[in-house]
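Our platform keeps sequence and structure together, in a single record for each protein. Such a record has a labelled line for the sequence and another for the backbone structure tokens. This encoding replaces a full spatial description with a residue-level series of whole-number codes. Below, we set out a record of this kind in full and without editing:
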Amino acid sequence: MDVLEIARWQFGITTVYHFLMVPLTIGLGLLVAVMHTMWVRTGKAEWLRMTRFWGRIYLINFVLGVATGLVQEFQFGLAWSSYSRFVGDVFGSVLALEALLAFFLESTFLGLWIFGWGRIPKKLHLAALWAAVVGSIISAYFIIAANSWMQHPVGVVLDTSSGEPRARQVDFLAVLTNNTALAAFSHAIVASLMVAGGLLVGIGLWHLRKRSLAGRPTTEVDHQVWRRSVRVGGYVSLAAFMLVALTGDWQGKLMFQQQPLKMSSAEALCTTEAPASFSIFALSKLGSNECDDVRSFTVPYVLSFLANGDFSSPVPGVNDLQEQYAEAYGATYPDDPSFGDKAGEPIDYAPVLAVTYWGFRLMIGMGAVSAGVAAYALWATRRGRVPTSRIGVYGSLLAVGAPFVGNAAGWIFTEMGRQPFVVYPNPDVPRADQVYFFTAQAVSPGISATEVWTSLISLAVLYGVLAVVEFGLIVRFARQGVTDGDTTPTPGIGGGSTHRDDDDPPPRADDDASDDVLQFAY
């Protein structure tokens, strides 16, 4: 493996792992904020217990997400310094705002929420949580805006005055309002809600069944905690699935306009068709990236509709687009040292067909699985029923991973589909003014394969340990369920007195007065 391939594996592994935590942080944060709001408004004990329990899971994931997210920025200087110089004028402003306006906002107010139980008024305490959640969403937007600029560069011109090409930003507002960013952001937010909804459904059904087999009465507050969690998670998952389809359709039509080769690769469409059929299943040598003699089971006309909103539009094939891209951007990489081992080699403009084709279907399939489980959960808990089916409950618990896999598959499809470009040319700009950058020229000059291998292995081991820690903590507290400390809104701090609002319910006699707020933060 050459340096470029090792560096891409490193970035892919660390980024996919981090991206598993991002949708849970965003989606579960929103739901916990809603739960906390419902408790403040209604004073019902089940909403408080839901807030405290799901809040623990949210905090565990948030902390590990921050730890793994920091590594992403280190990689730009380690293995991708040429890329960093090219995009620095754009990313500098966007990522600076992400840190100053978003990351500090969410971390500061999340700290107030963690340590504010019993110390500040309830409504201010709730506002702190909402500020942290909004900060997470703003942070996500800035990150997606930066990534979407790589997919569809706007608001820049190519600057070669220093002898080295770079993208010089001329319209910051255009970067922030990039239509690719707006579509990707909306898609990511609703997909995050699917992740959170699936978690509520899986864990909630498991606890309901456990309580039922133990003969616990359905009149207890804890029963209402799990039943309400399942119902909320089920409705959120189903609504999010429908919105994912709508926002995904928006993204698909933009993809056809901006990156037609990604669209064709996702369908293993080798030659231009009018109208074009949607492929359900393909039998071919996709693994070898040969787009010839593909045998597919298809649905007529659907791909034309997905691409352009009608049932007759032509969709160009991979082979035809390969010729067009070769004519526009060159059939071979420039014979330049900055391209390393790729200098002078032929350029295959088609991404890895097996990854784009099956990644697209895995993304859709996992979303459908999650929606199906949500529908089952709502049916199984209708009119106060408690599901006892071992297959249904444990299948729902296993399906918690489905939206995670779907989100990861979608990210991989998006990133791999734009290869061999790390910054894709904008087709709306005249050819002479286009800003683009090949992945082959983005690697740090002078870095050796041994150095990248060392960082890859080190980060993989570190991330593996963190994965075990996070999964272990989430499983531990999920199995533990609601605790006695979750029954009081104002836990004692080291046995001392606490602030209470006039409308707070009195503490229960069986509450642990020494329940440390740090126990809630973990």
In short: Strands lie at 156-159, 166-169, 278-283, 295-299, 421-423, 437-438. Residues 271 and 317 are 4 Å apart (CA to CA). The chain is about 65% helix and 5% strand. Residues 491-522 have pLDDT under 50 and may be disordered.
